[in-house]
Here is the input.
Amino acid sequence: MASRRGCLRLLLVACLALQVAAYVVETGDTGLARDTASVQDEASRGTKGNSQLTSPVNVSPPGCALPPGAAARIQSYQSVVDTIIDYVTTGDFKGLVYRNLAEMIDAFGPRMTGTPELEAAIDWIIDKSRGEALDHVSAESLLVPRWHRSNESAWMLQPRVKQLNMMGLGGSVSTPPEGIEAPVLVVKSFEELRMQSAKATGRIVVFNSPWVNYFDAVKYRKHGASQAVKYGAVGALVKSITPFSIDSPHTGQQQYDTEAKIPVACITVEDASMMQRMQDKGQMITVKLKMHAKTSKNTTSRNTVLELRGTQKPNETVLVSAHIDAWDVGEGAMDDGGGVMVSWAAPVVLRRLGLRPRRTVRTVLWTAEEQGRIGSTDYFQRHKHDHHNFQLILESDSGTFTPQGISFSGTPEATCLLREVLRLLHRINATQVTSPMKGGPDIKVWQQLGVPTGGLLNDNERYFWYHHSHGDTLTVLDPDALDRCLALWTSVTYVMADMEDRLPHGCCC
Here is the structure.
């Protein structure tokens, strides 16, 4: 009877483990998997004790029909992935991402497109790459714009005198040397501007749109000036694109959609809200805006290309990327210095560990992303004919905080294969696959050719607190989180570059 009860107990625990494994694949909750593994271990031994899961239960993700043997082939990389994780998080490479990033930031500061500082940073990373004995290090030159901020200020003169914390938006024209002094019209949307268009003539329009998310709010930064000038406005001020503010302006690129151009700057959440309250009370608001912005002729910059050549299929490639340029405020540590350093380090770690995959691993560090993805567009035009040879293209441009997995756009079959690969990252609880891809603005263009694309999925709830502001400094990043991001990035890169299975190309709908 006791033996029969023991067998029944083992059967029940095995069923539970299979159900939990399916749940873990969908949610990334490896903590639950470890708890279940502990129960399973105790049941098999008949004793109490602490055990830890060292490999996930080998079942395919729910709803996935993997090619025959694919799950076993992918799971056979567990020991290699564990080696990468150990080397990066506790071994000789621990902390190097943070230290390399600090070295770049301290030497060159923010890396605005078209500046000597950006080009010096590119030279530095090229030299550093050659010192790592990678197989190929090069740069592809292209023309990029150059916009200078220069002196700028904004003062509210009525109903009281107050200096407004502001920053010009990228590409803005300047004011006359003496500045612009005009009454203000505050609106919350383009629709409200249209309804109030008779009041816009001769005014500075202030856009005080509510924060919903970045993609809903950024249209006011991009198109606010062009919408305001249609109704006769002489200037525009846009509430900073952020859900949290300590009187911090957030800059960014804007674009003129009309021949008529007016100066445009960002102001803080606090000041936009204050002027909204004043207008609601019927008070007249007057602002003096002075900007000496300037656009110079295009200059030369470079995309940086690094390679670890594949052993069997060198023409097939897994590409990892980030953008090395940054705005002229803060340090560009979060946007996108952390992404630069984990993408740079992925082939470096593989070379140091002697892990040379079947396919080529290529890192590309884009230039001039902030001015409209200029570097990545140039790269796409040069290399789109080779799209069928890309196994996977990855980008890290949404922060390098605690990693959770990969956001992905690809076919259902490709998604299933990636989910299987991400199960190897259970030790650092970075097993999630979400769709569609986010955080990869430079690589989204490849989706039209059917190439699978992925972005680094991380716990970036605070990302837009610092985005394009003076607060984007090294202090917002955590060395241990950077190490885990690199462990995820390098592991996925290696397995995808070495695995026998080919990710299918096609519609990512």
